[in-house]
Design goal:
Length: about 400
């Protein structure tokens, strides 16, 4: 098989890249190790920045997003039993949209297949060849599909295969520098068949640990509790989960969560990670393959979409104008938005989670910072403009 861009991974990054390239007349093939059903059902992130919404709309992917996405013009920070609203619209003129990552995935897969795009599901043993700095000729991706070995020859490889994919690890040792922070906590997340009891997200700082109230639709509530990275889900009955959520999300104005059947439970690890540079030879990394943020800032999916917007524009300049300056600048261009999102996600995480804190000093620092964030227009604006997404030049 010959194509222009070989894409590994059908998450938001790989799929949107394939779609954006198609709009510019550039061919690609996407290789995905899971089934279509699996990736369309997998529950992941759910908040789109205004810039991500604009990108999906402008590229013709906005129909269901417009109909079903929930526009949120602010969030609440809850501490000391009181809710404090951060008004994104008033502070930035912009908003975010709650729309599940798997819905974005469904929309792009449908658009690609309708346009005759090639996505191969259930591939295995993917390996990358001849893509290094010195390599002459075409890059190669070998894999297995339908019980047979196959290969793709391409000009460029896009490594969009997530944190545990093969692309980043195919780069020789010493080329890439990795920056990492792990956190001594995780999130226990549930999806509940219950009408969301508030219109906007609530981020709660509590002495028993962080909690988050979110949603997916007018019928489905999404909730998280700070827990241990090694948390044993069998120790968490539905009753224990609801009790803990009620405690951490309790407010002095009588607001209460709606309960309902729990449809899904899981533990999400927390990590900050960046690989620099995001390119080696003919291989370009995008999305979780190159960087991870803890979910507290709701940035993961937005960072992935922003990377492939940059990569699609650079590949378009290469094919249509014979210019390679944008491709050469790919890593540096992306790392600017990546590190902004890394910092914001780390900051939100540090401000809201219960930390090891024998003397109580950390807790008081957090409370002082939260009071400042909700009490000062300047400080509220810092949170708001990062949450809705900074427009970096
Ligand atoms: N071969 C083929 N496909 C692979 C391989 C492999 N060796 N390894 C991983 N994949 C696939 C995964 O099955 C997954 O579908 O690559 C895809 C990567 O998709 P995501 O993990 O969704 O990553 P990305 O597209 O970068 O989107 C980032 O995902 O984790 C969330 O919070 C994160 O919202 C962010 C988003
Ligand atoms: C979610 O709804 O899954 C969600 C929302 C906001 C976050 C993280 C996750 O910060």
């Amino acid at each position: 098989m010959r194509t222009q861009v070989g894409i590994i991974g059908a998450g938001p990054a790989g799929l949107l890249l394939s779609h954006l390239l198609h709009l510019q007349g550039i061919e690609s093939v996407v290789l995905e190790r899971h089934t279509r059903e699996y990736i369309e059902q997998r529950i992941r992130a759910g908040v789109l920045e205004q810039g991500s919404v604009d990108l999906l709309n402008q590229s013709g992917l906005g129909a269901r997003l417009q109909a079903q996405g929930l526009v949120h013009e602010g969030i609440d920070l809850l501490f000391g039993g009181r809710r404090h609203r951060i008004d994104f619209r008033a502070l930035t003129g912009r908003a975010v949209t709650v729309y599940g990552q798997q819905e974005v995935v469904k929309d792009i897969i449908a658009a690609r297949l309708a346009a005759g795009g090639r996505i191969l599901f259930e591939v295995s043993d993917v390996s990358l060849e001849n893509f290094g700095e010195q390599a002459a000729g075409l890059a190669k991706i070998r894999f297995r599909h339908n019980g047979e070995t196959a290969q793709i020859e391409c000009d460029t490889i896009a490594g969009c295969d997530g944190f545990h994919g093969v692309s980043r690890s195919a780069i020789p040792a010493g080329v890439i520098r990795q920056f990492e922070r792990t956190y001594p906590f995780a999130w226990l997340g549930i999806l509940a068949q219950a009408a969301p009891a508030a219109h906007e997200l609530i981020y709660a700082q509590h002495q028993r640990g962080f909690a988050l109230f979110s949603m997916r639709s007018p019928q489905i509530t999404r909730l998280y509790l700070q827990c241990k990275p090694s948390e044993d889900l069998t120790q968490w009955s539905d009753e224990r989960i609801w009790n803990e959520l009620h405690t951490r999300l309790e407010t002095d104005d009588g607001w209460k969560l709606n309960e309902g059947p729990i449809l899904q439970k899981g533990v999400t690890p927390m990590r900050s990670f960046v690989a620099e540079p995001m390119q080696y030879g003919k291989l370009f990394l995008a999305g979780d393959a190159a960087h991870i943020v803890p979910p507290t800032g709701a940035k993961g999916m937005n960072a992935a979409l922003a990377d492939v917007k940059v990569l699609a524009a650079a590949l378009t300049a290469h094919y249509q104008a014979g210019r390679d300056d944008l491709l050469q600048a790919y890593s540096a261009t992306c790392l600017r938005h990546v590190w902004r999102k890394e910092h914001f996600s780390w900051w939100m995480t540090s401000m809201l989670h219960r930390l090891d804190d024998e003397s109580g000093f950390q807790y008081r620092m957090q409370r002082s910072e939260l009071e400042y964030v909700v009490g000062s227009r300047a400080a509220s604006s810092v949170l708001a403009e990062n949450y809705v997404g900074m427009a970096l030049p």
